[in-house]
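Q: What residues go here?
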């Protein structure tokens, strides 16, 4: 049996004695369903100055990445409710940020599939946290954030700033609530795909069950702030029988 990650946390192993190196200054998404591993990774990355978001499933990873476009992703493959490779495929359709697969699965098939889908590196579990942070550093250096500057989306007279968390119209910020911004960001990140209220609710509110009419209420509010005619929306469209979708061109 492969040793578990806790090998690294046994007594005598003292995290925190190393001097923090140059700050990473990046936003990193850790997709990992083993909470202890996730927290171990997060501790190291935060100590190095990274902002860390955690996701424990493919659905959570999609929701979090849509809201905070990460500069780098650490991706487990065996996840509840889906394979990490599914996330990778969709993530690559809109982001160039480096993805490092961190997995106990190290068959050649998995590596080939991961690299074919656009993964940048592969770290096997169990791993040394120091090796992992070194790989993170190497990928961030290599990428040197060309994607970060472009983490905005222009449509019509609007600019959606994913990192800043706001939308501007001709330089003036729109008064969107945090949830309204999150709903809009999620749809904009997945431009052209339609989402039913259940999917949006799960992705944005992070809950499986609840009052789905909340979703429609938020859509209406966003339309009132965004659309010239909220009853004939150009950007935040209704797809009959399917849900809502964002269209940048305002078809
Ligand atoms: Ca796992």
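A:
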């Amino acid at each position: 049996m492969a040793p578990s990650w806790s090998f690294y946390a046994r007594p005598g192993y003292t995290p925190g004695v190393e001097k923090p190196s140059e700050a990473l200054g990046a936003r990193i998404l850790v997709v990992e369903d083993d909470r202890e591993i996730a927290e171990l990774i997060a501790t190291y990355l935060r100590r190095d100055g990274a902002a860390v978001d955690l996701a424990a499933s493919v659905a959570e990873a999609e929701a979090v990445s849509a809201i905070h476009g990460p500069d780098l992703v650490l991706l487990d493959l065996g996840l509840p409710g889906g394979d990490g490779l599914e996330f990778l495929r969709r993530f690559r359709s809109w982001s160039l940020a480096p993805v490092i697969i961190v997995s106990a699965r190290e068959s050649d098939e998995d590596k080939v599939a991961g690299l074919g889908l656009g993964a940048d590196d592969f770290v096997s579990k169990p791993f040394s946290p120091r090796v992992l942070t070194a790989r993170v550093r190497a990928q961030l250096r290599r990428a040197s954030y060309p994607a970060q500057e472009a983490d905005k989306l222009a449509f019509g007279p609007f600019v959606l700033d994913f990192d800043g968390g706001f939308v501007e119209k001709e330089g003036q910020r729109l008064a969107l609530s945090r949830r309204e911004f999150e709903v809009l960001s999620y749809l904009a990140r997945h431009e052209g795909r339609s989402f039913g209220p259940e999917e949006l609710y799960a992705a944005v509110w992070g809950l499986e069950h609840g009052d789905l009419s909340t979703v429609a209420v938020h859509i209406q509010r966003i339309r009132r702030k965004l659309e010239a005619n909220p009853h004939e929306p150009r950007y935040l469209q209704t797809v009959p029988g399917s849900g809502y979708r964002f269209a940048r061109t305002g078809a």
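A: Context that may help when evaluating the design: The two ends are 56 Å apart (CA to CA). Residues 33-34, 76, 78-79 surround calcium ion (CB under 6 Å).
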